[in-house]
UniProtKB/TrEMBL annotation:
Residues 15-58 form the RING-type domain. This is Uncharacterized protein. The lineage of its organism: Eukaryota, Metazoa, Echinodermata, Eleutherozoa, Echinozoa. GO terms for molecular function: ubiquitin protein ligase activity; zinc ion binding. It comes from the Eukaryota. CDD domains: Bbox1 (cd19757).
Length: 608
C-alpha cells in the first residue's frame, strides 16, 4: 500500500507539459501548476501578449510585465518534491523483508534492483536487451521512468488500456466495468502510444516544412533590403560625385541630400525589417510549440497531461494553418525604396547640386471625381486642370487649390497665348478665347464637330498658333488667333493623335503605346514605341521631354526624362503607386518651379 501511494505521489509531481518532475513550480490563477520554464515557453508563443492560457483548462492568467517569475510559487509542492527526492527507493525484487537500497531501474521489468539483484538480472540471457537506467540519472531528471500507472481503484492492476472517447487510461477491470458502452473505443496503451508518436512525427515534419517555407521568405526579405540598400549607396555615390565637382562650401547641402536619401530608404528598410520580425516570431512560435509537442521522452498519462498536450497540439495545428508568405508585400515595399534617385542640376543652378526626386508625391483629390480632361501650366506658374463636368481648377505647386474658373464650360482642352489669354476647347470642339479676367472674346473659329472630327485636343506654340488634333480624321488643324478657318492641316498618317503638345519647332503626339516627335508638316522625326497604354508627354523647364507611362491595371506610374531625339536621360519616378481609376486617361506637366504634376481623372500628384 505504501509503495502504491509513493507511486501515485511521484506521478502527481510531474508537469503536464514537459512530463518531468516539476522544477520551480508556478501556480496559475486557475490553480493549475507548471514548471516556470514551460510557462516561459508558452508565454513566448503568445508574442507580446501578457495573458497566458492554461494548457489544461484554457483559463487565462495575467502575467505582470510578461515576467513568469512574478507568478506565485507552489511552495507546498516544491517542498514535497524535495522530500520525495531525499527518500530512498528500495529494491522491489528482494523477497526478504530486509530490502536493500536500489541502484538501478529496469524499464522493461518495471522494477527497482539493488546491486545483488541487478547482477543476477543482468546475467540472465533473456534480460540482456532490457533498458536499465541508474537511479542517480532518474533523480537528476536526465532520464524519466517509463511505466504504466497503477489503477487507483485496483492498485494491483496496470492501466494498460486507453479509452479514446474518455481520453484516459484504465486497467482491464475498469474497462469491463465502465468502458463497455458501444460509444467507448478502447485500445491497448501500447497501440495508443504508437499512434500518438506517429501523429507527433507527422506534426514535426509539417512544422519543419512550414518553418523552411518562412525561412526562405526571410531570405527573400533580406534580398529586397539589400537591393534597397544598394539604391541608397548608388544615390550617395552620385551625390558625392556632384559635390566633388562643385565648390567646397556645398558640404552642408551635400549632407542634407544624403540625409534625404537615407530618410526615404530607411523607412522602406524598417517596413521590411518589421515584416522579417513578424515572420521570425512565427518561426519561433512554431519551433517552441513543436519542441514541446514532439517531446519523445514521455507519453502523457493523466488527464491534465492529456489536456495540456491536446492544447499544444491544437496550437501547433492552428500555427500550421497560417498561409504561406506572400512575396507581393515586400516586393511593393522595396519598390518604393528602389524608386528613389538623385537628379543633378545640369545647365541650371549647378551650385544647388540637385534634388532627390520621388520623395513622395503630394496626393490631391480633384473637386469632382472622374472629371479631368486636360492639364496645362499657367503663365504665372500655377497648374490649370480642365474638367469635362465643367470648370478649370487652379492649383499652386504646393498642392493648394486656389480657385475654379469657367464653371459653366465643359472643358476638353486648355492653352495660353503669349499675352496670357486663355484658349479653351469645349466638349463641342468649339474654340473660345478669354481674357485674363475670364471675359469671353468675340472671336469665332470654324472647327470640326464631334461627329466630323471625333475627340479633339489643342496646344499653342510660341508663335501663338493654335493646333487642334482630331482623333477620328487623324489630322491636326492649325488656326491663327484671328479665328475663322484653319490656315493649314498637318496629316497624321496611320495613327490617331490622342494628345498633342507643342515643342520648339515640333509637335509631340501621343497615341496608344507610342510617342512621336513630328515636324509641322507631319513628318515623324523620332518615335518611341512599346510603352504602356496611353502614355502622356510634357516639356520640362530644361527643354527636355518628360514622358509618363501607367500600368493601369495595377496602378503604377513611371516618369522618365528624354532628349529632343527621344533618347533616355534618366528615371525620375519609378513605379509610384497611384489610386486606380475607371478611366485610363492621364496628363503630365511641369511647374515653373520644377515640381512635376501628374493628373488622373480623380487626383493630382505633385512630385518634388
Amino acid at each position: 500500500m505504501a509503495k502504491a501511494l509513493k507511486s501515485v505521489i511521484a506521478q502527481n509531481l510531474e508537469c503536464p507539459v514537459c512530463l518531468n518532475t516539476f522544477t520551480d513550480p508556478k501556480i496559475l490563477s486557475c490553480s493549475h501548476t507548471y514548471c516556470k520554464t514551460c510557462l516561459d515557453n508558452l508565454l513566448e508563443c503568445h508574442g507580446n501578449d501578457q495573458m497566458l492560457r492554461c494548457p489544461v483548462c484554457r483559463a487565462e492568467t495575467q502575467v505582470p510585465n510578461q515576467d513568469i517569475s512574478k507568478l506565485p510559487t507552489n511552495l507546498a509542492l516544491k517542498s514535497l518534491i524535495k522530500d520525495v527526492k531525499n527518500q530512498y527507493q528500495f529494491c522491489t525484487n528482494c523477497e526478504s523483508d530486509n530490502k536493500r537500497q536500489d541502484v538501478v531501474y529496469c524499464q522493461d521489468c518495471i522494477k527497482y534492483f539493488c546491486v545483488t539483484c541487478h547482477n543476477k538480472h543482468s546475467q540472465r540471457p533473456d534480460f540482456i536487451s532490457h533498458e536499465v537506467v541508474a537511479i542517480s540519472e532518474i533523480l537528476s531528471g536526465k532520464v524519466s521512468v517509463r511505466r504504466y500507472r497503477k489503477c487507483s481503484k485496483h492498485p494491483k492492476e496496470d492501466e494498460n488500456c486507453f479509452c479514446s472517447d474518455c481520453r484516459r487510461f484504465a486497467c482491464f477491470r475498469c474497462v469491463l466495468m465502465e468502458h463497455t458502452n458501444e460509444r467507448h473505443r478502447v485500445i491497448e496503451a501500447a497501440v495508443y502510444k504508437n499512434s500518438h508518436m506517429k501523429s507527433i512525427e507527422e506534426l514535426k515534419l509539417k512544422a519543419a516544412k512550414k518553418r523552411s517555407c518562412f525561412q526562405k521568405y526571410v531570405g527573400f526579405i533580406d534580398e529586397q533590403r539589400e537591393r534597397v540598400s544598394n539604391v541608397q549607396k548608388q544615390c550617395t555615390y552620385d551625390i558625392n560625385k556632384a559635390y566633388e565637382e562643385s565648390v567646397r562650401n556645398l558640404t552642408e547641402k551635400k549632407e542634407i541630400l544624403i540625409g534625404e536619401v537615407k530618410g526615404m530608404t530607411e523607412g522602406v528598410e524598417k517596413e521590411l525589417e518589421e515584416m522579417k520580425k513578424s515572420v521570425v516570431e512565427h518561426i519561433t512560435h512554431l519551433t517552441t510549440v513543436d519542441d514541446m509537442v514532439t517531446n519523445k521522452t514521455k507519453i502523457p498519462l493523466d488527464m491534465d497531461a492529456l489536456a495540456a498536450h491536446d492544447t499544444l497540439c491544437q496550437d501547433l495545428l492552428e500555427a500550421l494553418k497560417q498561409e504561406d508568405p506572400d512575396y507581393k508585400q515586400p516586393r511593393q515595399s522595396s519598390r518604393k525604396g528602389k524608386s528613389v534617385c538623385f537628379k543633378r542640376n545640369v545647365g541650371m543652378d549647378e551650385l544647388a547640386l540637385g534634388n532627390i526626386v520621388n520623395a513622395g508625391a503630394k496626393n490631391i483629390a480633384l473637386p469632382t471625381k472622374n472629371s479631368m480632361n486636360d492639364m496645362v501650366g499657367t503663365p504665372d506658374g500655377r497648374m490649370a486642370v480642365g474638367c469635362h463636368t465643367g470648370g478649370v481648377e487652379i492649383f499652386y505647386a504646393d498642392g493648394q487649390h486656389q480657385q475654379t474658373v469657367f464653371k459653366d464650360v465643359r472643358i476638353r482642352s486648355v492653352g495660353f497665348l503669349s499675352d496670357d489669354r486663355y484658349v479653351v476647347l469645349d466638349f463641342s470642339n468649339n474654340i473660345t478665347l478669354y481674357t485674363l479676367e475670364y471675359t469671353k472674346l468675340n472671336v469665332m473659329f470654324k472647327t470640326l464637330s464631334n461627329v466630323e472630327g471625333g475627340k479633339a485636343k489643342l496646344t499653342v506654340d510660341g508663335d501663338d498658333q493654335i493646333y487642334v488634333s482630331y482623333k477620328k480624321v487623324k489630322k491636326v488643324k492649325v488656326f491663327s488667333t484671328a479665328g475663322g478657318k484653319a490656315i493649314r492641316e498637318i496629316p497624321c498618317d496611320g495613327y490617331e493623335p490622342v494628345q498633342i503638345t507643342s515643342y520648339n519647332d515640333y509637335l509631340i503626339t501621343a497615341s496608344l503605346n507610342t510617342i512621336r516627335l513630328i515636324d509641322k508638316q507631319g513628318v515623324v522625326k523620332y518615335k518611341l514605341t512599346g510603352l504602356d497604354d496611353f502614355p502622356c508627354a510634357a516639356v520640362s523647364q530644361g527643354n527636355t521631354i518628360l514622358i509618363a507611362v501607367v500600368q493601369h491595371n495595377v496602378g503604377f506610374v513611371s516618369i522618365n526624362e528624354y532628349t529632343n531625339e527621344l533618347k533616355h536621360i534618366q528615371n525620375l519616378v519609378i513605379d509610384y503607386k497611384i489610386e486606380k481609376t475607371k478611366r485610363n486617361w492621364y496628363n503630365l506637366q511641369q511647374y515653373r518651379s520644377g515640381e512635376i504634376a501628374f493628373c488622373t481623372p480623380d487626383r493630382l500628384y505633385i512630385f518634388p
